[in-house]
Please model this.
Amino acid sequence: MAGVNPPEKENDYPEPASFGTLPASGFFLRHVKNIELSSVEIATESPDHRPAFWLQDVQGSDFFRVKTGRGRPAATFLLHDVEDFRVSGCRDVKDTILERVGQQEL
Model:
């Protein structure tokens, strides 16, 4: 499921069910500019092999004090075509600043 790339459906209202199963267990972020998430916790009832955060075509993202649970079976972040990415103060991911990345897991 982590490899799924949901259809754009840019002319439809983004109802959650219209995209089917998303490739993230927490936040699916596509075509976003300047997002900041602070003090967020992602928890699942059972092990989930999808990344907690899936980003594509994101310019300017800042994640501070994000918790995803120790021993998760998947990456916390999966990045596709991301610019100006920063994560800090997270237990499960070391502080990272990326100017531009094509594809990377953290």
